[in-house]
Amino acid sequence: MCHIFASQCPASYAFETRSIRLNGQSTSIRLEKIFWGVLETVAARQGMSVPKFISTLHSEVLAIRGEAPNFTSHLRCVCLVSLEGSLYAGAAACDTDGAAEAA
């Protein structure tokens, strides 16, 4: 099992920095490439570009929390929550299919 994780392509965890405007201010966000890929998927599901999704998310965090401490870590957590939700959604679909087959 560790081979699956240890043999991961180094390019997937190489850093990539992107410039984004958050609330009218230009900033840079540095994430591993694999997280940018997940954010692209999440943004597409929301019908947004990655910059628009991140900007909207940042605004919502500010509205809820009043600040966005360690926003880059928040983005990584968004990716994990999204992937975890996909796993649960897949499990629910399997449970539904299994129930239908059993009936």
Automatic annotation (TrEMBL):
The lineage of its organism: Bacteria, Pseudomonadati, Pseudomonadota, Alphaproteobacteria, Hyphomicrobiales. Residues 16-81 form the Ribbon-helix-helix domain. Gene3D superfamilies: protein bp1543. It holds the Pfam family RHH_4. InterPro entries: RHH_dom, RHH_sf. This is Ribbon-helix-helix domain-containing protein. It comes from Methylobrevis albus.
